[in-house]
Amino acid sequence: MSGSSRRLKALMHKEILQIFKDPSSLLIALVLPLILMFLYGYGVSLDLDHLRVGLVLEDTAPDAQSFARSLINSRYFDAHIVRDRRELGDDLTRGAIRGFFVVPSYFTQFRNRPDTIAPIQVIADGGETNTANFVQNYAMGVFQNYLKQEAITRGIIPTESIINVEPRYWYNEQLESRFFLLSGSLAIIMTLIGSLLTALVVAREWERGTMEALMSTPVTISELVIGKVVPYFFTRHGLYAPLCSHLHFCL
After folding, report:
1. Is residue 190 within 8 Å of 182, Cβ to Cβ?
2. What residues make up the domain containing 142?
């Protein structure tokens, strides 16, 4: 074995012993990643459920009431029903609601015409464009489902329902974004923790004065960097490899 290999092996052996003897390093390597995974899993989400919206029912006929029930029963909205759109203007300005839907007074008249589709008005808060797009898309989906259900109830089979393609997902069937994000976040967390541990160890070496002792030895810069990085990578990988494999299997 060459001198460089022996020095590198001795440096990595020293770092591994220092990891398990230093409580702060173990705390950062074990507890901090769990906290970050918890934050990424529950604090970062692209799903918008139970959006606070308003529903203006200018038409109180059974058809309008049926659409109102479809909107209320949707998991995407928490709807507040009023009779006058002016009651929701201040709520929309203050951000208390993300938008509101207007069922006009001629809604039932249009529903009774075979060649027309009853219109509804969707007003979304443009201050958050992404949320406004979600409100519009969710409202369109709820309205389309309402039209299909009403057609089936009246004994009319919609043309698009003759062949209905429904995609199914093997994992994460509910398509919750946190499960898609968490698997990618693991790589970021592992890299972040490894870099943080290496930086703390190097700073501690300077504080204790041992870095000058290392620099006075034949150890080269590349050997010192490898000896600091590799032990933390393998130690971190050994601690979290079973957890990562289980999470990827679940996802």
Report:
1. no
2. 51-161
